[in-house]
Amino acid sequence: MKKKNLLAIGLAFVLSLTLILSGCGNGNGSAGSSSSKSDSSSSEALSGKITIGGSTALQPLAAQAAKEFMEKNPNVQIEVQGGGSGTGLSEAQAGNFDIGMSDVFAESKTNIDAKALKDYQVAVVGMTAAVNPKAGVKNLSKKDLQAVFTGKVKNWKEVGGKNQKITLVNRPDGSGTRATFDQFALDNKTPAEGITQDSTNTVKKIIAETPGAVGYMALSYFTANDKSVVKLSLDGVEATEKTVATGEFPVWAYEHMYTKSKPSKLVKAFIDFMMSDAVQGKDVPAQGYLSVKDMKVQRDATGKQTDK
């Protein structure tokens, strides 16, 4: 009888121990699964704020990409502002912008430590002169364009246009658009004094409202249905995405996004989104830019153009 009792007690103990271990195992498995899901969810979710500023040539594309990125990541806030390439570079270097937008290489600015910044070339922008329709010109030789902007020619009739006084509209010294236009359209000749504006949108507005006015803008600011300004051809070559990609039209620049050293996870995620097919394949051409991948030519920091 005692043996039977001991055997029963032993079996009950083993069964209890098995149930306890099984329960613990299931509990750990469930907790592990829940933890794994939680970790996965937290690793995928992005939150925080990004401040982007600088080049007004890149501003429309950056704003569109920011809108789409925020729609995908509702806990992210992105502020996109202009100010010019010089501002973009200096504020990125100072840490005030998470991303500084620039039409020029950081190496071209004497007050910028290019080695302290990380360069992401996110697009290519073509630029050309914008003219008030009443000027009566659609094409100029490079020589005549330089004569207009250096003040040697003061009336459009001198270069085949109407009897209309020329009014120059320039961007400030810190503008990457100006630096690109001065280097590749004016061959670094010093432009004459005129109206100076920080914003490309304001430049366009002044040109549209001032008979005889001329300035310069990124191709993204010219739209098919907008006849308020005339997009000027150069030496008979129209400024288009195709002629820029082949290097036939010489006035173009990379659109850079600069970060101070290594970017944060959130900033890197946005830059990766800028280089995604969603942006490069759709937004870049729709906004009047070119994908870096579509370029048949390339440029270095000195401005030298070579075939890819």
Number of strands: 13
How confident overall, as mean pLDDT?
87
Helix segment tally: 9
Shape: elongated
Strand content: 15-25%
- The low-confidence runs, each spanning 5 or more residues with pLDDT under 50, are 1-43
CATH architecture of the largest domain: 3-Layer(aba) Sandwich
Structural class: alpha/beta
The number of distinct structural domains comes to 2
CATH top-level class of the largest domain: Alpha Beta
Cα-to-Cα separation, first versus last residue: 95 Å
Q: What is the CATH topology classification name of the largest domain?
A: D-Maltodextrin-Binding Protein, domain 2
**What composes the largest sheet?**
9 strands, mixed
Q: Superfamily at the CATH H level of the largest domain?
A: Periplasmic binding protein-like II
Q: What is the H/E string?
A: HEHEHEEEHEHEHEEEHEHHEE
Roughly how much helix do the residues carry, as a percent range?
25-40%
Radius of gyration: 29 Å
